[in-house]
Amino acid sequence: MTFTTDELDALDLAVEGPVLRRGDSGLAAEAAGQNTTVVRDPDVLVGALTEADVQAAVRFAAAHGLAVHVLATGHGVFAPVTGGMLVTTRRLDALEIDAEARVARIGAGNRWGAVIEAAAVHGLAPVTGASGHVGAIGYTLGGGLGPLARSHGYSSDYARTFRLVTATGEAITVHAGEDGHPELFWALRGGKGGFGVVTSMDFELVPLTTFYGGSLFFDAEHIPAVLRAWARFTDTAPEEATSSVSLLRFPPLPVVPEALRGKTVVSLRYVHVGEPEEAERVFAPLRAVAPAVFGRVGEMPAAQIGLVHNDPVDPGPAWDRGMLLDLIDDDLIEAFLDVLGPEREVPIVAAELRHLGGATLRDVPGGSAVGGRPAAGTLVLIGVPDPALFDGVLPAVADGITARLAPWVSASNTINFAGDLSVPGSFESCWAPEVLERLARVRAEWDPAGMFPYPVVGRVSAGAGSR
Questions:
Q1: Residue 151 parent element (H or E)
Q2: Domain spanning 210-428: which CATH class is it, in words?
Q3: What number does CATH give the domain 5-88?
Q4: For residues 374 and 361, is the Cβ–Cβ distance under 8 A?
Q5: CATH 3.40.462.20 spans which residues of the chain?
Q6: Using the 8-state DSSP alphabet, how is residue 313 labeled?
Q7: Coil, helix or strand for 159?
Q8: To the nearest 10°, the Cα dihedral for 247, 252, 255, 261?
Q9: What is the rounded CA–CA span in Å between residue 21 and residue 42?
Q10: pLDDT category, 73, cuts 50, 70, 90?
Q11: pTM above the 0.90 mark?
Q12: Which of the four, 83, 163, 196, 227, has the lowest number of CB atoms within 10 Å?
């Protein structure tokens, strides 16, 4: 132990939020995250209530040689925490909407759902991920590809400022201007972690009150036809349309809608931000491929964009691996069906393909650290939620699938989609070599002692909601 009880008591008096040490009865609950298989057992935990709490925590850690880990929702977890300090930011949930400037000031404890709801009152929307349950800031730091990706780009493109507590305990405002540490700002838009503790961000909103979209589910017999039609659709889809398909193996449980219970189906997701008539015209060929057994595609309020993917919100064990694709074509679909089709018995409960391009190809003025902009699409494999399979079976299955799909898998990746980083080189592939080197230089400048260790690469489970 690198600190005394008296020193910890002094920290407790200096902060407004809870201070816990290993063995305290409330530590496990405070340190819990979305992925229940990741254990966090720090030497000391600070539940920050204010930015000043974060500053005090970081200064304490620096004085006692403690590594600092950060937890908001726990969707993007990389490895267990077995020592040092854990700062939880869920109480930093201040949220302000400046409708005139079209900016949301988002505290680090906010999930996207809260931002979506608050912005909708003003006819505005954030460019978010597929799930409103994900923490807004952790998601944005990794880039972020959601259901508005082709029409609006990466979520990190819309970050305008960050408040950051540095390794010295100083709180600074980071932005693109000369006095805003522009190199650090570049890194925070896509570089993910290892720079300090982000306590809030200003995020640009877009005018959006409705969209045309939703999700349709098709029975197993129609999966090949739907996937092939979707692949052809990506050849001509306008930028206004973002789409994906997910092959899903549903368990026979009462919580699953009866039409899907115990079945292998494909979900076809669609979001179009243009006029409804044009959106339906574009979607009509996909709708006509086969009769849907469940779901709806039509005009929806922007505040309901999370219903398109309808990702789970309850904490639980999670394992996934994601990659980017250089090409989506008929041959990819045939290979996908060969290893993941409904007749295969594989411990993969969801295999999702997303269409990228459009606005995701265009970097922001001044550039950003986001990896994977040239990609045509993504592939994510989500394993059976059985922790006994996480260390051996699921990685081996994913290796086999990846090998079969190798001609289409990009050599590069993007960090929010990578998931299981146990494969050597998978972390490094999330950025181009020159970007990775530049990120290392920024981390060395702002955290020379390595107080904010990143990455901690072991068995990784990011969870589907971290996209």
A1: helix 149-152
A2: alpha beta
A3: 3.30.43.10
A4: yes
A5: 210-428
A6: -
A7: strand
A8: 50
A9: 7
A10: confident
A11: yes
A12: 83
